[in-house]
Amino acid sequence: MGIYRELARNEGVFRILFSQLTARFPFGMLSIIVLLHMQEQFGEYTAAGVVLATQSIGQAISGPLSSRLMGKFGMRRVLWITSVLCTGFIVVIAFVHLPLAVTALISFAIGLATPPITPAVRTLYPRLVPGKQISALFSLDAAAQELIWVLGPVVAVFIAAQFGTAIGLTVAAAFMLGGGAWFILSRPVGVVKIPPSRGSLGAVLKRPTVVIATIIGFFFVASFAAIEAGVVRAFAPAGDGGHSSIESGIVLAIFAAGSLVGGLFVGGRPLRPWSLAIRIGIVLAGTLACLVSLNIWWLSLVLFIGGLGTAPTFAGISSMIGSTIKFSETAEAFGWIGTGQLVGVATGSAVAGIAIDAMGAQGAIIVSAGLITVAGVIAAFTTKWVPDLKGRDIEQPPETGTITLPLP
Q: Which of 210, 263, 278, 336 is the most buried (most CB within 10 A)?
């Protein structure tokens, strides 16, 4: 744990960490709260799936595009514009009851205006701490991210159950705007300049590590969205239209606790070629065990165990990108990865909603297990591209390569 004390000695690191966590927190709330809000308005989960699917399309477009724009126009300008627009669209969804087609169009706008907080902060990290501390910082960030994806739905479900889904969406919007302002006004955001990428949009996808991280991130996060929907449905009181009781919040909070423990005690270890596959395997074991029983104590136990591999997996993905991609390409690389994860949330929730209508809570758990199995298989078959960072500091490749001149 001494490495985290060393991190604290770097000026501004924890402010950046906590402010970006607050700004990104709504991303963990929106999938479940939109699912519940749309089900309440239209009376079925399938309609909610349509709305989430349009949001995912918008996010797929915005992720790498807004990341590149930060290199051209600066981080602050892009983050301010997207934060304000996205917040406004969420408030409209919350309080204006519109036809499904119009609601889906506004949901697309939410995705398109999603603030590129993730690529911004992960581009900043290598400029804030020495190379020997970056793995630990990525690990701490990964643990915090798991709180977003797992604890975010807990907050969303609790607020929806107590105050209604419209208030839940409003709270998510407040987190986005307030946390975004805190992060945007941080000194490093104004000081660090991202060099404009020299390649065309999407050129970074020629890098194997970016493709691997994007695809694994998509399936990995989609599995969490699916199991969260399954847990919510498992404890929904009869006749409550899919709204969850407090038991689902407890189970998801314990899932988050397992991830936090894993991130703090395992995620700081250096990445090895088989690290991602092993860590994903731990999560898969916990997910499959959920099919044995939907008892609250059993789900809490197995999801805590599965959570131990969650944050370390995200930390490994970030370390892989940080050690193989040039600084000028990092923002776009994380933009594609963030798009994969955000689209994964929407896709996992949408597919899980359909499975719940057909099979109940266990249908969503089966979907989650299938998605995470795909992530594990991909990780196992791509080990030759995963860098071995044991005994190495994370250093980004130089912007220009060495030119060999012929001897006279």
A: 263
What CATH fold (topology level) applies to the domain 12-193+200-385? Growth Hormone; Chain: A; (1.20.1250)
Closest CA to 107 of 66, 62, 56: 56
Contact 48, 39 (CB under 8 A): yes
Point out the least confidently predicted range of 112-116, 138-142, 217-221. 138-142
Cα 291 to Cα 267: distance, rounded to the nearest angstrom: 27
The span from the CA of 151 to the CA of 376, in Å, is: 24
Q: What is the pLDDT of residue 65?
A: 85
Note the residue count of the chain.
408
- For residues 164 and 157, give the distance between their C-alpha atoms in angstroms, rounded to a whole number: 9
Question: What is the chain's mean pLDDT, rounded?
Answer: 83
- Kindly list the domain boundaries of the chain, sorted by start residue: 12-193+200-385
Look at residue 406 in the predicted model and tell me its pLDDT.
Answer: 44
Render pLDDT for 98-107 as a digit per residue (tens, 0 to 9): 899 999 999 9
pLDDT at residue 387 greater than cutoff 90:
no
Interacting residues of 64 by C-beta distance below 8 A, sequence separation 6+: 201, 202, 204, 332, 335, 336, 339
CA distance 27 to 58: 14
Predicted TM-score of the model (pTM): 0.75
Which residue in 49, 39, 57 sits closest to 168, CA to CA?
39
CB 260 within 8 A of CB 309: no
Tokens standing for 138? 């990525």
Q: Among candidates 337, 335, 354, 347, which has minimal Cα distance to 371?
A: 347
115 phi and psi angles, rounded to 5 deg: -65, 135
Cα(334)–Cα(226) distance, integer angstroms: 23
Q: In this predicted structure, what is the pLDDT of residue 157? A: 80
pLDDT digits 0-9 by tens, 339-350: 788 778 778 888
**303, 146 Cβ separation under 8 angstroms:** no
Q: Which two tokens stand for residue 338?
A: 């963030």
3-state secondary structure of 267: coil
Q: How far apart are CA 352 and CA 327, in angstroms?
A: 37
Rounded CA separation 163/160 (Å): 5
